[in-house]
Design goal:
Length: about 550
Amino acid sequence: MAKVGAVYPQVEPGAEALMERRLAVCPPRATVARALARGAEVLVTGPRAAVRRSELARAAGWGLGALAADEVAWRGLPVVGPRTAEITVRRLVTQGAPLVLVRAGRRVVGAVDGERIEVTPAGPSVADRLEAGEARAWLLRVAGKVGEGMGLPVFAVGGVVRDLLRDPPAGRRFADLDLVVEGDAIAFARRLAEEVGGHLTVHSGFGTASIEGALASRVGEPSGSPIGRVDAASSRRERYEAPGALPEVAPAPLAEDLRRRDFSVNAMAISLAPSVFGRLVDPLGGLRDLGARRLRVLHPLSFVEDPTRIFRAARYAARLRFSLDADSLRALRLAVKIAKYPALSGQRLFAELELLASEPEAQTAFKLLLRWKALRLWNIGYRSASGIARRLPAATRLLAWARERGIAVDAGELYLVALLADQRPEVASAALHRLAVRGEPFARLRAALAARPLAASLERESRLSRAADMARTQPMTALAAAWMLGGARARRRLEWFLSEGRAVRPLLAGEDVVALGVPRGPRVGDCLAALRRGRLDGALVTVAQEREFVKEYLSRKEA
């Protein structure tokens, strides 16, 4: 029985109270299948390297049992003693350590698994980073109040949180918002749309909804001014039946929803409930990685389960000027080594290409993909070539030149040509098929990849009319390809054609030449084309000169 007034020592549980003891040591080159057969929950593959049984089981389930277990293991893990304070261990986990090894003397006796302990601390408030009166802050507060009224916790997640926490904060203008609801996101979105206006689109099969064009009249914007798209999703876990497949989803708490994401810097959330508005939820060390300008995946098979994350890694690294950490680079190399992903659709790969091409730092992102040898995912025979390094900056310059003049050039197709122009024809063709390019886009890209003779002809041609005739029959992508593949003269000819030459028309119209005696039908078009050539070469300047030309044209035809 406790005595009144007595002082009792407070015993704090150490690391050994949290650790998993079902642990085995296996050689680094032991296969996944062999390591899995050991039956332990954690397999130690090196002094500071280990892998969970669940990760080995996933790899084996995907047919990767012959891989070395060390290829799917975490390395550089923190090591503590059995009596290390619990708070220290939890801090390591919240800083991003997936496993913490517990060593007694020279022997690892256990491991603390970050997925199995509660590590969602009450973080700092970042509400001060939302500008007072800003449309984004207003909408987030409304979302929190709507959620509270429905008894649903609501959080802002993903890019908006990451950009808000960057120093200095990025994206001060209202951007699209991702909201996660612990509960029925569709019901929440319906109620939110009643408050903020806009058009609601429900995706019942995915448990998500979007609001387009919410109104910002309450925050000083012009009445009816749209303030962006809001996406609401129920918090969930994901399971990948096969590498590259779309995941199967099931409801789950926020902590699991954050753990399923691509990178730690995108796995942070902000509480929107009025009582804790702006409170940061960062269970996976995203804020620390943000400060270190680091992209870190959340498990070793991240790029294998979803190879499109490789392209996202290049996009974020280029845009944010971040680098992948060592474990993430190893995870990426493993995914590239596997290379073939039958369950990954070409449409998803092409969508990532288009997103990359739309980035201001697109050429940097594509250079990263080349360095990582990631384009083997398009075709295993893809090889980098010296010409690509020149063509990517050239593509960027051409796009900037075209935008200044209001000329539409498809950025995705242009960069794709820059990346495929030096590949063997069979590799380039296979890559287009892998990207699910079909129909008219396929025809345009085939013409573009065959644009070297056009570039050479333009380089030699001195007459503007002949240069214009050569260019006029080609799709825009092929002209852009010829610009990249040609020399200085060919580029000048193409720039002239796109900015001036293709708009040149005769002063006389079709009815005018018919009135001068040209019979209706194909000969009208032939005559107008001849007039256009004369104007391009400077031989025809006035209406009178064009009339005389038509008379001579008729006399030649009659003769």
